[in-house]
Amino acid sequence: MRRFKGRVEMAGGRSRWTATLVAVAVVLGWLVVGGIAGPYSGRLGEVATNDNASFLPTDAGATRAQDLAAGFVEKPTTPALVVYERPTGITEADRQRVAADAARFAQVRGVVGPLPPPIPSQDGQALQVVVPIDDSEGEQISRVVEELRGVAGDDRDGLTVDVTGPAGLLADLIEVFTAIDGPLLLVTLVVVLVILLVVYRSPVLWIFPLLAAGTSYALASVFVHHLARNDVIKLNGQAQGILTVLVFGAGTDYALLLIARYREELHRHERPWDAMRTAWKGAAPAIVASGATVIVSLLCLLLSSLNSNRALGPVAAIGIAATLLVMLTFLPALLVLGGRWAFWPRRPEADRADPRTEHGIWSRIARFVAHRARPVWIVTTVALALLTLGVTQLGATTLGQSDLFTTRTDSVAGQEVIARHYPAGTGSPATIFTRQETAQEVARAAQGVPGVAAVRPVSQGDRTGPPDPDAPPKVVDGLVQLEATLADPPDSDGAERTIRELREAVHRVPGADPVVGGFTAINVDTSDASTRDRNVIIPVVLVVIAVILALLLRAVVAPVLLIATVVLSFLATLGLCALIFRYVFDFPGVDASFPLFAFVFLVALGIDYNIFLMSRVREETVKRGTRAGVLAGLAVTGGVITSAGIVLAATFSALAVLPLVVLVELGVAVAVGVLLDTIVVRSLLVPALSYDIGPKVWWPSRLSRAARTPTEAGDAR
Q1: Which fold has domain 360-405+554-706?
Q2: How does DSSP classify residue 600?
Q3: Fold agreement (360-405+554-706, 429-517)
Q4: Closest CA to 266 of 277, 257, 281
Q5: DSSP H stretches of helix in 76-164
Q6: Is the pLDDT of residue 465 over 70?
Q7: What is the dihedral of CA 538, 542, 545, 551, to 10 degrees?
Q8: Residues 6+ away with beta carbon under 8 Å from 526
Q9: Is 61 in contact with 515 (CB distance < 8 Å)?
Q10: d(Cα 66, Cα 457) in Å, to the nearest integer?
Q11: Smallest Cα–Cα separation from 20: which of 338, 454, 473?
């Protein structure tokens, strides 16, 4: 007997050493990968493109107009508008300064000269210089605009000067996106660090999930960088910012779930390796299902007609895939090496204690749900339904130029000056391409549209002098280009209504085959494409998530129940956010892409917490019965899922450091939605519904036909 015991101890020792060597090898391997991949996390801006026009679908009217416009110019250009204002009236000295500046503008590399003469306002208080910038400059357009601002100089003796127009706006956007890497990553790291310290109250344990999350981000950055550099995927500043918070948020969520299960198993096993093996088997299916749900939901964005949406899908999916790989290999190895000491000073002992005893508050919440299941789910459903009424306050679905930024940029200030002294569409006219023989009739139809201030054909001499209304139009391949100056700012709702009416009016001209483009037409086509994407992608995402849930839970009723609650939570989030945007932040509305992005992230991430809960509930149901399984699952997962929700909400809130309204809105929406999911939906609504329905929630699996066990009856009491 003693010899047999010795052999067991020797076998256990060899097994422990083998496990340790495997863990060391995995950790060292990932540290090497992290060292190689780390530098790429700061180089994503090198391969990001932020040319909004290129995001349009190829069959959009504005896209076709851009293609036709290339034939009317030697070089396609994007105009910068340099506007000078003196409220007391432009002086002769001001005119001389503007003329001198215009001569210097023409010498800036990237500017296509000669420049047209300065345009005076009718009230004599402003002068405007149109500076065409070569489109081949690409991202370097920001450098050209910066040089123009340097030439124009600061305000002087009451004369203000601003550089605006499409080029000025694009330059300001590029400046914001190129600054994403440092501040956003730093804020995200600090937020995650603080929350981990609060959750674990350990000076050691927080290092493991943060190191694993950082490795996940580095690994994702390598793949995204190489794929974007080789034009396999498109990366823009928006996708880059979301990748950062998504990887750290989701990675920390997965880490919290695995660590909580590991701690639970340490109470049941003497050796950390055995505890991790059991914890991994229990937590990995839920983590993989959660990650797969998010990845597939994000890849549904490939169905979008907008390149900006298609860019986000693969980039974010790569981030989640890298996170899954790291969190299910690197993190377990770190935890095994850390053993029980990683949890110091709250070290879990191998006392075989019921895990529910460590979750007193959640055990009390579980008992509350059991005693009042039906009132709980009815009250929470009604409360969420009332919040959905706020959706009517969402406001405009197209943000104007002055509404894009949370700060007042030079391009915004310049656009306000133009709106005060010129027809607001000056410098960004709508372009109309039509047959030469119908040009006059199309021009008359366009001029008759309310909101169109003036219509004129583009002539051969437009680039060398002031427009001559009597000059013959330039004809290219039998087509004539007309320019329609709009009365409203080009990024306003009024201008978009005018474009829609303009298209209807010119299309009524027989045989004209007109194509309407320009800055405002791009916004219109983007908004229409966003509506189409929303109607197509949202149902696909719901079907995909339903299939994944059905496979994971091996049931039909439970997946339908979970999807219904998450959709209700999404609508409630939109309603609550609409009130926050309007009455707290004073935002005028949301971007056209906001509802789709909010849906994909909230539903995909929100369903995560229900997956974590219901996969554990199913595991406990096999042992205890359905209703007792619901209570046990809620008790043991309540704390970790709530912590995970707070982490994800806080990391997405880090988007608020960027001065872009659309990213601030998305960050707030995800934060609010995740908190609703974790605190209300997952903690009260889903458990109460599942408890009230009972075994039938697992229909048509065998669990739905299982009789109530004595354990279940005892727990219910």
Answers
A1: Multidrug efflux transporter AcrB transmembrane fold (1.20.1640)
A2: H
A3: no
A4: 277
A5: 92-105, 141-152
A6: no
A7: -150
A8: 55, 56, 306, 592
A9: yes
A10: 17
A11: 338
Q: Can you name the CATH fold of 429-517?
A: Alpha-Beta Plaits (3.30.70)
Q: List the structure tokens of 56.
A: 């349009």
Q: How far apart are CA 179 and CA 572, in angstroms?
A: 33
* Residue 85 clears pLDDT 90, i.e. is over it: yes
pLDDT digits (tens, 9 = 90+) for 354-368: 555 555 688 888 889
According to DSSP, residue 116 is labeled P
Phi–psi pair at 113, nearest 5 degrees: -100, 175
532: Cβ contacts below 8 Å, ≥ 6 apart: 305
The whole-angstrom separation of Cα 195 and Cα 646 is 8
> By C-alpha distance, which of 177, 195, 299 is closest to 248?
195
Closest CA to 657 of 43, 174, 187: 187
Question: Hey, what's the torsion of the CAs at 157, 158, 164, 169, to 10 degrees?
Answer: 90
H-type alpha helices, 155-206? 165-178, 181-200
* Residue % of the chain over a pLDDT of 90: 21
CA dist., res. 170 & res. 164, Å (int): 9
Mean pLDDT across 544-553: 86
Written as six digits, the tokens of 236 are 């823009």
State pLDDT tens for residues 473-530: 888 888 889 988 888 877 777 888 999 999 999 999 998 889 998 888 888 888 888 8
Q: Spell out the domain ranges in the chain.
A: 5-47, 70-178, 360-405+554-706, 429-517
- Higher-confidence residue: 171 or 308? 171
**Taking the alpha carbons of 661, 666, 668, 669 in that order, is the dihedral positive or negative?**
positive
> What are the tens digits of pLDDT across the range 20-46?
888 899 999 999 998 898 888 777 767
Name the residue with tokens 């090898």: 25
Query: What's the pLDDT at 359?
Result: 55
Type of residue at 380: T
β-strand partners of 291: none
Give bridge partners of residue 127 from the DSSP assignment: 84, 120
The answer to whether residues 82 and 101 touch, using CB atoms and an 8 Å cutoff, is yes
- One DSSP character per residue, 31-91 reads HHHHHHHGGGGG-GGGG----GGGGS-TTSHHHHHHHHHGGGSSS-EEEEEEEEE-TT---
Give the amino acid at 574: L
Distance CA 341, CA 272 (A): 10
pLDDT tens for 385-419 read 999 998 887 765 566 666 777 777 888 888 888 88
Does the pLDDT at position 627 exceed 70? yes
Mean pLDDT for all residues in the chain: 83
Asked if 55 contacts 194 with a C-beta cutoff of 8 angstroms, the reply is no
Q: Which fold has domain 70-178?
A: Alpha-Beta Plaits (3.30.70)
- Closest by alpha carbon to 163, among 428, 423, 413, 463? 413
Beta-sheet pairing, 119-120 with 452-457: unpaired
Q: What is the pLDDT of residues 323-342, one digit of tens each?
A: 999 999 999 999 998 888 88
Of 400, 311, 312, 410, give the one whose Cα is nearest residue 591: 400
DSSP state of 702: G
Give me the amino acid identity at 663: L
**Between 434 and 157, where is the model more confident?**
434
Surface-to-core class of residue 13, CB atoms within 10 Å of its CB (0-12 exposed, 13-18 middle, 19+ buried)? exposed
d(CA 154, CA 140): 22
